[in-house]
Design goal:
Helix content: 55-70%
CATH class of the largest domain: Mainly Alpha
Largest sheet: 2 strands, antiparallel
Distance between the termini: 39 Å
GO molecular function: transmembrane transporter activity
Structural class: mainly alpha
Membrane topology: Multi-pass membrane protein
Shape: globular
Main location: membrane
Strand order of the largest sheet: 1-2
Subcellular location: Membrane
Transmembrane segments: 44-63, 75-94, 101-121, 141-161, 191-210, 216-234, 336-359, 371-393, 414-433, 453-473, 494-514, 538-561
Number of strands: 6
Radius of gyration: 27 Å
Length: 584
């Protein structure tokens, strides 16, 4: 009877009361779907605001185009950068459930505040002809302050949510149960698809409501959807499985670095087996030659085991001595950094799709019969490219590749390379399309707010960069999860998300530099307040060149990278007194 009861429990999970989780009463697809729902609403809110924010800043707040673009990219960059904060809090203090609950409420407050700021006349400047910028009064400090407060509450909420939602969703499945393991794979496969559906709803329905009905209503819908998602999330509290926190990987990395610095003057022992190791044989990682300075963290020094005399079960001070396996885990993370750095440029290119490309669309003919396509809704082609690419890759490319090469699709590094190639081509095509648009603006008058040029000219750049995202997003996620240590999967996911963050910040930096350099002679420069007077084509061309250079560097890094091969565990014991015997 006792054995039967034990078999119904999930080993490493507890229920909401802290008791061992009963597999028949907790976890599975229903709780995972409730968690997935809050991520769909988060994506609906964040993207529904981000893709159309640039037109609000220019048309309502009367800000210059470059300033508007930077506000959007800084907002999106902060969203993803705060994922590190959310992950740290979840791993170290709050746990994933509380982290999701707290930051979902924060995001709901932010969207509610944004709806209020867009509704009250006192919180925006008086209307004018924003296209000509004649007698237009820009938003003052108080108005912008209230807007910033709302946006960065949303960013804080988004960061906390994104860091924990996917992990908490997978917590609902037991990897040691074959049936539940298959369900978890299904959950991963559908996760990106459903958040893309959330994005699709955002760039179509929500953007249309914002442009044609009212901003406050559109933002209010975001707030209401998040509130409903929170209630649904709380309804599953008794059904969830909870994993106990094992400590923050960030702290573990700092411990290895601190121990290595402390012992930087010591020499590595001639016999490498003298290095400290306490991990179980089955989970040990073979020492590698790269980053040898970190190996000094595993040198046993005087005072490292001073607490063992008082309590034989206690280990060494982790800030003074780390095991070889712990050091190798940090090395594995270090080997990811060159790939990490060379994928940032893609997200800099991506940033243009929700900023300057939307501004381009706002000046072009967007009519289909009597229907006027909102400028922000052009990103629907971007989302469509993602969904089409994923379907073609899954149903066509993978089977053909398996027949030809015997492998189930491209490797993660190959998919990243394809994404970088497509984004570079996308920027080159965007530069050509902008040359055509500027030529039309010059012929009919640069002050025209509705050029006789179809907005569908922009579709190729949206499709190329969108298809690139389908490859690079899945490639990065696969790479950072499979090539990172088992205990640092959450950390590596956060590392992946920082490439998105830094991509947006690099975009803001480039825009600021280009604006300053090209406007130094008193002209409007490449990024004029009214893009009809600028040279956005040259900016796109510069991004294409930078993308090509980045692609070459990435290929070098991808060849240099040597994935960790599976090896038998090292058969050695921790040598606490230099002769292989434990003093205890």
């Amino acid at each position: 009877m006792q054995e039967e009861k034990m078999s119904m429990q999930v080993e490493d999970a507890v229920d909401y009361k802290g008791f061992p989780a009963d597999r028949s009463k907790t976890g599975g697809w229903v709780p995972a779907a409730l968690i997935l729902g809050i991520e769909i609403c988060e994506r609906l809110s964040t993207m529904g605001i981000a893709v159309n924010l640039v037109t609000y800043l220019g048309g309502v707040m009367h800000l210059p185009s470059s300033t508007s673009a930077n506000i959007v990219t800084d907002f999106m960059g902060t969203c993803f950068l705060l994922c590190l904060l959310g992950g740290f809090l979840a791993d170290s203090f709050l746990g994933r459930y509380k982290t999701i609950a707290i930051f979902a409420i924060v995001q709901t407050l932010g969207t509610s505040m944004l709806a209020i700021t867009s509704k009250l006349p006192q919180l925006r400047p008086p209307p004018c002809n924003a296209h000509d910028m004649i007698d237009c009064k820009q938003a003052d400090g108080f108005q912008m302050g209230m807007l910033y407060l709302a946006l960065y509450l949303i960013a804080l909420g988004t960061g906390g949510l994104k860091s924990s939602v996917s992990g908490f969703g997978t917590d609902q499945f037991n990897e040691k149960d074959e049936n539940e393991k298959a369900q978890m794979a299904f959950f991963f496969n559908r996760f990106f698809f459903f958040i893309s559906i959330g994005t699709l709803m955002a760039v179509t329905v929500l953007v249309y409501i914002q442009d044609e009905v009212g901003r406050s209503l559109g933002y209010g819908i975001c707030s209401v959807s998040m509130f409903i998602a929170i209630l649904i999330f709380f309804s599953g509290t008794k059904r969830y499985r909870y994993k106990r926190s094992s400590g923050s990987p960030i702290v573990q990395i700092f411990q290895v670095i601190a121990a290595a610095i402390r012992k930087r003057k010591l020499n590595l022992p001639y016999d490498i087996d003298m290095l400290y190791e306490d991990a179980p044989h089955a989970s040990r990682i073979h020492r590698t030659e790269q980053f040898q300075f970190l190996d000094k963290a595993a040198i046993v020094g005087e005072g490292d085991f001073e607490n063992r005399s008082l309590n034989c079960s206690s280990g060494p001070n982790p800030w003074k001595l780390c095991s070889v396996t712990r050091v190798e885990e940090v090395k594995m993370m270090g080997r990811l950094l060159p790939i990490w750095a060379t994928t940032i440029m893609f997200w800099t290119t991506y940033a243009q799709m929700i900023t300057f490309s939307v501004q381009q669309a706002s000046t072009m003919n967007r009519s289909i019969g009597d229907f006027q396509i909102p400028a922000g809704s052009l990103t629907v082609f971007f989302v469509a490219a993602i969904l089409i690419t994923l379907a073609v890759y899954d149903r066509l490319i993978m089977p053909l590749w398996k027949k030809w090469k015997g492998k189930p699709g491209f490797s993660s590094r190959q998919r990243i390379a394809i994404g970088l190639v497509l984004s570079t081509l996308g920027m080159a095509i965007a530069a050509l399309a902008e040359m055509k648009r500027l030529s039309t603006a010059k012929s009919v008058g640069r002050s025209s707010s509705n050029l006789p040029l179809s907005v569908f000219l922009l579709i190729p750049q949206f499709f190329l960069v969108g298809a690139g995202e389908a490859f690079i997003y899945t490639g990065q996620l696969d790479f950072f999860i499979t090539q990172s240590p088992k205990g640092m999967k959450t950390m590596s996911t956060g590392l992946f998300l920082t490439t998105l963050s830094l991509g947006f910040f690099v975009s803001s930096f480039l825009v600021s530099v280009i604006k300053k350099v090209t406007s130094s002679d008193g002209g409007q420069g490449w990024l004029a307040d009214n893009i009809n007077y600028g040279r956005l084509d040259l900016f796109y061309g510069l991004l294409a060149i930078l993308g090509f250079i980045n692609l070459i560097i990435y290929l070098i890094c991808a060849v240099w990278y040597k994935p960790e091969k599976t090896k038998p565990a090292i058969q050695m014991e921790a040598r606490f007194n230099g002769n292989g015997e434990d003093k205890c």
